[in-house]
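Here is one chain, start to finish.
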Amino acid sequence: MTGPSKTPVFLQRASYRQRRLRDGAKLVPFLGIILWLIPLAWQNEGAGERVGSWGVLYVFGVWVLLIVLAAALSSRLRSDASISDQGTSEE
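Its structure:
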């Protein structure tokens, strides 16, 4: 019975980067939930008012930020996939 190999694991940069981008894309919804829960912790002077106009602006600002972040990650994933597809088609 032989033990585990002592050789280092080699990962190609393109596939490693693409995996990390996919992981980042999977974390975007959780980041959005955490950022959207922040206004619930804000305390205002009014007893019945929890989120004021700044809270609404914050929620829509986070929404726009998430859209931009998802679009950027999507375009990077798409461009990395086309590069890796071109590399495999030449073989």
